[in-house]
Protein: Cysteine methyltransferase
Amino acid sequence: MTPDEYVEAVLELVDRIPAGRVMSYGAVADALAERSGRASARLVGSIMARHGGAVGWHRVVNAAGALPPRLAAEARARWLAEGTPLRGDRVDMRTAGWWPGEGM
Structure:
């Protein structure tokens, strides 16, 4: 898989995350690892920072269920609008976490 194909694969996967659910950067990388040969949460974060505006960027969070502080207020508003389970200012990863192949 070329770097451009990987970007497309990340964005396609993120676009499939249902409203009210999330994946961590690492989970996105893991879901694509076998097919892509890459398994870097940091690379997924870079892709989301550069290209994520066209997809549900707020549905990809760090392992603790948070986004960078500069995005937190807008993300929280989106999470609330979608009914995403929260624990304080973070997503409740145990109940909101999603994996490809789960029911939508």
